[in-house]
Design a protein that fits this description.
Elements: E1 2-10, H1 14-32, E2 35-41, H2 45-51, H3 57-64, E3 68-73, H4 92-102, E4 107-113, H5 126-131, E5 134-140, E6 150-155, E7 158-163, H6 169-184, E8 189-194, H7 200-213, E9 220-225, H8 226-235, E10 242-245, H9 247-259, E11 268-272, E12 278-282, H10 299-312, H11 316-331, E13 334-335, E14 345-346, H12 349-358
Parallel strand pairs: 1-2, 1-3, 3-12, 5-10, 8-9, 8-10, 13-14
Antiparallel strand pairs: 4-5, 4-11, 6-7, 11-12
Helix pairs in contact: 1-10, 1-11, 1-12, 6-7, 8-9, 10-11, 11-12
Bound molecules: nicotinamide-adenine-dinucleotide.
């Protein structure tokens, strides 16, 4: 198959980790006889330096003409970088919000997987960590409280602030469809998280999720209240396969879930629109403290490339090959500095990238 991939390496460790993710994509292309072509684009701080803005129309256009986007991370040291002296709409992060909007990316997927080889980094009790977990949080990304009308005013002499949590049935239906489709590629189980005992928006959420569920009889559906979900994540994370939830609940729960895996350098993510198109990036930031030192962990970027193969290109075997190569490299004891433990072999960003590519 021939595929076009837009590549945004970004700032900080972005160029280093994306280079390793491209090594993995090239190895998968070679093994399975595909041809991937890459167009490199600027976004974030490097785009500000080159063009004066964090996101150009050209970057958006080339992304739209591609089959998927592979991204590193953007931004610099927020205390010292001159990018953060600019008005908010010209800072690196404005590029990120701009591209999500321009590409209609409404579903954010964050797999949280505890590799048995790294279970000592998990802050949960040993018996829970030893059991392992492999879940995916699907967060609605363009609606809810963060996008509803808000205002601050004086009411009866008191300063009063209002935010609005708003969803329509179409916004819920399209994320529900994504959740059930993704569950079909995993263990066929969806837990929908809401606050239906209090919120109208959650009652509508639950109703639409139930309606969509009827079209997926092969996928088991359960509902869970968000306060319970926060507890269950630390009590028994293995019970979750796909968790689907609205924007703010997903924002909070996905950070909680990433914490229990122990390392930010291991966590990929994907943001999808209604088609197969998606943007794939590590969950972490640009790590300016270690940029340019060949020290970063590229595994999150490599696993993001595996998600790109799985979700945008429907290349299941190829994605499995990349993920298995990561597991094998860890089994053999290779570690970057952030996940190093006693008895393991410490390697650089580029070394572990090559080791993984060789094992695909
Ligand atoms: P960060 O994730 O960049 O770094 C937090 C800590 O984790 C640092 O100690 C860093 O060295 C470490 N770390 C992160 N990724 C790592 C990796 N792959 N390997 C090894 N260690 C890793 O978060 P921050 O310091 O809060 O933010 C730095 C910059 O990144 C800011 O400008 C922020 O706005 C930006 N940011 C960008 C994105 C994105 O591009 N999607 C996401 C989050 C933060």
């Amino acid at each position: 198959m021939e595929k076009k991939i837009a590549v945004i390496k970004g700032d900080g460790i972005g160029p280093e980790i994306v280079t390793e993710a491209m090594k993995a994509l090239d190895a998968a292309a070679k093994k399975f006889s595909h041809s991937f072509s890459y167009t490199q684009l600027l976004m974030g701080g490097c785009s500000i330096d080159a063009y004066g803005v964090p996101l150009t129309d050209e970057t958006i256009e080339v992304c739209k003409q591609s089959d998927a986007v592979l991204m590193g991370s953007i931004g610099g040291d927020t205390a010292t970088s001159p990018w953060y002296k600019l008005p908010a709409n010209l800072r690196p992060e404005a590029g990120l919000l701009g591209i999500r909007k321009a590409l209609g990316l409404f579903a954010n997927l964050r797999p949280c997987l505890l590799y048995p080889q790294l279970s000592s980094a998990c802050p949960l009790k040993k018996e829970i960590a030893d059991n392992g977990f492999d879940m995916l949080i699907m967060r609605e990304l363009t609606g809810g409280l963060y996008f509803g009308a808000r205002r601050t005013e004086t009411v009866d002499g008191l300063e009063t602030a209002v935010d609005t949590l708003i969803y329509n049935e179409n916004e819920i239906r399209r994320i529900a469809v994504k959740a059930f489709e993704v569950a079909r590629k995993r263990r066929h189980s969806v837990i929908s998280v809401d606050k239906a005992n209090v919120l109208d928006s959650s009652r509508l959420w639950r109703k639409i999720i139930n309606e969509v569920s009827a079209e997926y009889p092969d996928v088991e559906l359960k509902h869970m209240l968000v306060d319970n979900a926060a507890m269950q994540l630390v009590r028994d994370p293995a019970q979750f396969d796909v968790m689907v939830t609205e924007n703010m609940f997903g924002d909070i729960l996905s950070d909680e879930a990433s914490m229990i895996t122990g390392s930010i350098g291991m966590l990929p993510s994907a943001s999808l629109n209604e088609t197969k198109f998606g943007l794939y990036e590590p969950s972490g930031g640009s790590a300016p403290d270690i940029a340019g030192q060949d020290k970063a962990n590229p595994i999150a970027a490599i696993l993001s490339a595996a998600m790109l193969l799985r979700y945008s290109f429907d290349m299941t075997e190829e994605a499995d090959a990349v993920e298995n190569a990561v597991g094998k490299t860890l089994d053999e004891g290779y570690r970057t500095a952030d996940i190093m433990s006693e008895g393991c072999k410490r390697v650089s960003c580029s070394e572990i990238g090559t080791l993984i590519a060789e094992r695909i």
